[in-house]
Structure formats: structure tokens, C-alpha cells
Specification:
The protein has 313 residues and is α+β, with helices and mostly antiparallel strands. It has 3 helices and 21 strands. It has a single domain, classed as Beta-galactosidase, Chain A, domain 5 (Distorted Sandwich), CATH 2.70.98. 17% of the residues lie in helices and 41% in strands. A 9-stranded antiparallel beta sheet has the order 6-7-8-9-21-17-16-11-12. The N and C termini lie far apart (77 Å).
């Protein structure tokens, strides 16, 4: 009888441990996938759990189906250029679906964060923070190698094509030039009557700090993709899209970028920052996707406010 009691006790303790392990696992899974919600705006930020590699979903108030939100590859890739070399290389490249090497997410207040080791002995800490008017992105690099990098980029990729912002013909996608707000593709009115298979696939780019390409390089075709370059530069590094009903604006911004651009098929928004990374050193990149009810002019106010904050001692 005593032996049976001992066995029963052991089984009971084993089930208790198993139950605790399952509870802890469910809590971790929930912490990774449950949404951060901003109480003022109603925006939701959550991990896109259909993928193992880091991606986010941003939902507007009242959106319950995460598949129809804005998807952000976080990042799409990390690209570096070693000092003294002309060619760039990927330390990381995002892939869709279930992979074996996805990082563990953690929640820090209104932020979702993870860490990941990249190729070349570089460590990445990535954080997305939900704010009342959008999502702020921060990437911090720790270089454990003896290699100096003249350039490092972590390209976050907000894809609006499944959301109310989808804009394949670039009829609601704007930039700010010295004349004021203008359609990004104002130079290409013919796009509106082109067959879709003649318009896509393409990229539409507008210079900020980089020089505007000469006239004979404004339209370039490479590997089946047509690259259209605007004839006038932007004077602020952001790209903005108005929702179909005209009530919402999504705009992606960083404080410095060579250009801004989009792939219209995905209605993605790019204002890609760049920095250097010294051997055994650290570096950071930051930007934001504004999402709010309002007008384009409010975007400009928000961007200038961000610039003002950067200039504070």
C-alpha cells in the first residue's frame, strides 16, 4: 500500500510540474502575441505570429482581424558595407512563414522587444513602441567583431496593402516638397491609364539628401522592375498615404534618409536611415510610422515637432 501511495504522490507531483510548465508556456505565448492598445487612439500593436522571424501588425480602432492590419517587417533586412569595400552584404534577411530560428519577444510597457544575433558577430536589439499617434522603431547594434562598417541599415518595412491605405496607383500617396504637399507620382500621370501589368512591378523614389538622377536616368528597368525617380526632391524625409475614406493618414519618417520610396503593389513606405558601426562599438537607428485621424498638414507638424525634440540638449 505504501508503494502505491509513493507512486501516486510522484505522479501527482509530476502533473503539478507539468501544469506549471504549461501555464508558464501559455503566459509566454500570450505575452508575445497579445496586443498593446493605446487608450487614447485605440491603435493596436501585436506580433505577427504567422511568421517566426520578426514582424508586427498595427490595427486601427475596431479592427479585430489582424490579417487586415498594417504588416511591418521588423526589419526586412540588415545590410552593412565594410570599411574599404564597395559591395554591401546582408547580415540578416527576413523570410515569411515558420522558421526554426525566430527570436523570443518580450513586452516592456507599451513596447515589444527582442534580441537576435546576426551574422558577423553583430547583436541586434529591436524595439517597437506603441504611441498615441503611431509606432516608433528603434534598432541598437552591438558589434562584437573587429570589423568597421561604414554603413549599417536596418530597414523596417510597413506594408499597407491589406489595409484601408492600399494605394496601388499612387493616387493618395504624398511627399512634401518646397512647394508643399504633392503626390509622389505627380510626374507620371500616364500611370492612371496604364494596364496594371505595365505599371507593376515598379518602385517610385524621391530624393532627399541624394541628388536627383539626371533626366536620362529617371526611369530605369532592372531585373524586370521599373524604377521611377521623381524630378524634384522632398524637403522632409517622410512618405504619407491617406486612407480610402480620407479620414486617416499613415506616414513613415526618419530624421535623415537618402530618399523616400514605395513599392506600390505593397503600398509600403520607406524612409531608410543609415549609420556607421565601429569595431567593438555600438550604433542606433530610429524612425516612426505615424497613424492618426487627421490631415496631411498634421503630419508636417508632427515631423517638425520630432525635429525640435531631437535638437533639445
Amino acid at each position: 500500500m505504501s508503494d502505491w501511495l509513493d507512486i501516486a504522490g510522484w505522479v501527482g507531483r509530476a502533473f503539478s510540474v507539468l501544469a506549471l510548465w504549461i501555464t508558464a508556456s501559455v503566459s509566454l505565448f500570450s505575452a508575445q502575441t497579445s496586443a498593446n492598445v493605446d487608450s487614447a487612439s485605440g491603435l493596436h500593436l501585436l506580433v505577427a505570429d504567422e511568421d517566426s522571424l520578426p514582424a508586427l501588425r498595427i490595427l486601427l480602432p475596431g479592427q479585430l482581424d489582424s490579417i487586415h492590419g498594417i504588416k511591418v517587417l521588423f526589419p526586412e533586412h540588415v545590410t552593412v558595407r565594410e570599411q574599404g569595400r564597395g559591395a554591401a552584404e546582408h547580415l540578416y534577411l527576413w523570410r515569411p512563414g515558420r522558421q526554426e530560428n525566430g527570436p523570443a519577444w518580450r513586452r516592456l510597457g507599451q513596447s515589444l522587444e527582442y534580441e537576435m544575433d546576426l551574422k558577423g558577430n553583430v547583436h541586434l536589439i529591436a524595439r517597437a513602441t506603441l504611441e498615441s499617434d503611431g509606432v516608433r522603431y528603434r534598432f541598437r547594434f552591438v558589434n562584437h567583431s573587429n570589423i568597421n562598417y561604414d554603413s549599417v541599415q536596418a530597414i523596417w518595412d510597413p506594408r499597407l496593402y491589406q489595409s484601408v491605405f492600399r494605394d496601388v496607383w499612387l493616387e493618395r500617396t504624398y511627399v512634401h516638397r518646397k512647394e508643399g504637399f504633392q503626390l509622389l507620382a505627380v510626374d507620371m500621370p500616364a500611370r492612371l491609364v496604364m494596364p496594371l501589368n505595365k505599371w507593376l512591378p515598379c518602385r517610385y523614389l524621391d530624393s532627399y539628401t541624394w541628388p536627383v538622377p539626371p533626366l536620362n536616368k529617371r526611369v530605369v528597368k532592372e531585373e524586370g522592375i521599373t524604377y521611377f525617380n521623381a524630378s524634384r526632391p522632398v524637403d522632409e524625409p517622410f512618405i504619407a498615404t491617406v486612407s480610402r475614406d480620407g479620414k486617416w493618414v499613415a506616414a513613415t519618417w526618419t530624421s535623415a534618409a537618402g530618399n523616400v520610396w514605395t513599392n506600390p503593389e505593397l503600398t509600403c513606405q520607406h524612409a531608410d536611415p543609415e549609420t556607421s558601426l565601429k569595431a567593438e562599438g555600438t550604433a542606433s537607428l530610429e524612425g516612426k510610422t505615424f497613424i492618426f485621424r487627421g490631415t496631411l498638414h498634421r503630419v508636417l507638424e508632427k515631423v517638425r515637432h520630432e525635429r525640435h525634440d531631437e535638437c533639445r540638449p
